[in-house]
Amino acid sequence: MMGYISLSLIALLVVFAPPVVLADDITPIPAEKAQVEPWFKANVQPFPARRGTLDPDLEAAEASPRIITVNQKGGGDFTSVNAAIKSIPVGNKIRVIIKLAPGVYKEKVTVDVGRPFVTLLGKPGAETNLTFHGTSAKYGTVESATLIVWAKYFMAANLHILNTAPMPKPGTQGQALAMRINADKAAFYNCRFYGFQDTLCDDRGNHFFKDCYIEGTYDFIFGRGASLYLNTQLHAVGDGLRVITAHNRQNSNDQSGYSFVHCKVTGVGTGIYLGRAWMSHPKVVYAYTEMSSVVNPSGWQENRVREHDKTVFYGEYMCTGPGSHKAKRVAHTQDIDNKEANHFLSLGYIKGSSWLLPSPVY
User: Fold this and answer.
1) Which fold would CATH assign to domain 56-199?
2) How would you list the strands of the sheet with 273-276, edge to edge?
3) Which residue among 184, 198, 202, 211 is the active-site one?
4) At the top level of CATH, which class does the domain 21-53+205-355 belong to?
5) In the annotation, is 239 catalytic?
6) Would you indicate the residue range of the signal peptide (predicted)?
7) Are 182 and 163 in contact (CB under 8 A)?
């Protein structure tokens, strides 16, 4: 019959329709540092302004959030972080904001996969510390973390997350993680991560870090995450061989990678490397980043496997400071043009328009 369209044809049209690309997914982070905060506020608006644009499960979760309070001294709903997390039912479907009173919480915290939509919220301007002393010798590397997150849509703000195991002696192994994030669609605001070797396991999923501080010695950001770091300080301590990133991308089809935008590389001594090829296809880009003289002139550690020279993606774009000079960089450092840089400078890199929200107010 003329004008009749079958249901199967409609289904085909839906399947092959081009995806909708939202403006905030493609608007690049500005080159001017003073414009970064206005860019963020314009592109990552609170939930009421985002209704109808977020993942359906996230929309439902944000509609009626629940607040839990934790205070070690009493007066809150719980006195420990783990007790508050365990009070959330498995299969949780609403945003649960766990407000932590300032203090030092000496506990090993896990947010398991069955408890999504959790926010750990510290008080701005006050120290709220999660600390533990787990080591790879006792727990295994990735299980040594003070905070381990398996659940989607996690958020943390205004926290200090520390592994207090002692610094390993130069030339010895001493993995001891502050955090392992192994969940998709997680955001961290104004958080500080302290450790030495393997401080932050930025593993599977899309992640966003803003206004954070990460301290370590060797491979202190590692894993296979697809992550955007904005206005974050990367601080090297210790001596001997030191490397910031060890990205775990293993093939050219993997969409993961680390993008550092308007960050700072600082530290003591000289000779830290921006990254190394832990696996065959690491992807790490620094853009608009201020690099102090702590950075080794070659930039990136020479690959132990020479074939990896052809498969690594090490990029630097419009960086500044004495450590940013490219004259002595390893030959396989990528020369990124404006068009290519924009891929690493937008929320589209982490598919942020469908899930990224600002931190709640304490």
Assistant:
1) Pectate Lyase C-like (2.160.20)
2) 109-111, 147-149, 179-181, 200-202, 218-223, 243-247, 273-276
3) 198
4) mainly beta
5) no
6) 1-23
7) no
For the entire predicted model, the pTM comes to: 0.92
198 as an active site residue: the answer is yes
Of 24, 202, 211, 219, the active-site residue reads 219
pLDDT in tens, the chain (362 residues): 344 344 444 344 334 444 444 555 789 999 999 999 999 999 999 999 999 999 999 999 999 999 999 999 999 999 999 999 999 999 999 999 999 999 999 999 999 999 999 999 999 999 999 999 999 999 999 999 999 999 999 999 999 999 999 998 877 789 999 999 999 999 999 999 999 999 999 999 999 999 999 999 999 999 999 999 999 999 999 988 899 999 988 998 989 999 999 999 999 888 899 999 988 999 999 999 999 999 999 999 988 888 888 899 999 999 999 999 888 999 989 888 899 999 999 999 999 999 999 999 99
Q: How many CA atoms lie within 13 A of 227 on its CB side?
A: 33
- In CATH terms, are 21-53+205-355 and 56-199 the same topology? yes
